[in-house]
Amino acid sequence: MKTETLLKEFCQYVILNICGMIGLSCYILADTFFISNGLGANGLTALNLAIPIYSFIHGSGLLFGMGGATKYSIYRGQKEFNNADKTFSNTMYIMSAVAVIFVLTGIFFAEILTKLTGADKDVFHMTKTYLQVILLFAPAFMANDTLICFVRNDGNPKLAMLGMLTGSFSNIILDYIFIFPLNMGIFGAVFATGLAPVMSLIVLSGHWIAKQNQFHFVRIKPSFRLTGKIISLGIPSFITEMASGIVMMVFNAIILRLQGNIGVAAYGVVANLSLVVISVFTGIAQGIQPILSRVYGYGARESQKQILKYALITMLIISCGIYLIFLLSANPIVSIFNREQTIQLQQIAETGLKLYFTAIPFAGFNIIISAYFTSTEKALPAQIISLSRGFFVIIPMAYSLSYLLNMTGIWLSFPITECFVALAGIALYIKLERGKKNV
Hints:
Elements (H helix, E strand, L loop, with lengths): L2 H75 L3 H28 L1 H8 L6 H13 L1 H16 L3 H23 L5 H20 L1 H4 L14 H75 L2 H36 L6 H14 L3 H16 L3 H14 L1 H12 L1 H31 L2
Helix pairs in contact: 1-2, 1-4, 1-5, 1-6, 1-7, 1-9, 1-10, 2-4, 2-5, 3-4, 4-7, 5-6, 5-7, 6-7, 9-10, 9-11, 9-12, 9-13, 9-14, 10-11, 10-12, 11-15, 12-13, 12-15, 13-15, 14-15
């Protein structure tokens, strides 16, 4: 593929996908803003305690969406169109089964989950409400995540972006209406969030109405072998999202011990801004995935390297810009989410912004290199990176550094982890490239 054509396609997919992912991440950021202004620090604490379950749901949607869509693109690149349709059908079957499990959990186990978050009597009811409603909307979230990936990989990144943005803007509008004029409290916030993927799915249906879809449902029995391949390719995306939820739970537990509910509220500001920042890099990663999978199916190695180069340069430029904004504007940014002007919350969150986000370039590299491995069917190194940054390094780092440095240790555990994992990612890439040359 010509360099000019490759760059044009890269820009189209990545720009559209970054816009869409920022929109998607604003589901929770909108909740953070309106809850902090409508319900104060306790509402913000309840939101932060409940948010990890959203990460599990979103991660499950991406597990099937990214895994299934990646395999779909590879099959289409290899001209195996029947197998591509089978991949789509199999993905939708298993995704639906998992979504039902989330719904049943919301119906029968919401109170138990709320207790596990560590919510005290001041925030217990709000936390339970948010958890229960978000679980009941799991089928909509997961279907939206899955179909966005397939529509994008089916050559329609613009519609995928419009779906994500429609969902996000509807959430913002409904958040305001439900929390302020209708005074529905935290139920209004989570109900608005739950309706957002429904709006997005309505937009995505245009792919079928216009008969642009190249993937179709076919009658098949769910294949364990194909399911294994889909899950293997989707695991890095799942781990990334699930790990963010687990890390939030661990950080919440540590911060509750160190600073109480105010500390958790301050961390909530940083963590939810982090979701938006990470979504930018996820947008780059998901934008390059369809192109990488297709050129990989063609066997074009040089094109794969070129796409990776474009992605990393884009990531570095964006990283510098984002960190400068946080460094120079920490005070006004935190103030937006601190309606009660709590001095302790303001101080903790401002320090957190400046330290926590030194991780930006390392996290961006890790997300992109993991997507590169996944898109070229190198599932194991992608899983190593995802597991390391999500579990094996970050959790021990958080406990050890918080013991030594209290809240400063909490903030530094994220950048130090991402730096170590980035070094491992570089080593894995070099090893694989040397292996290709020896073939």
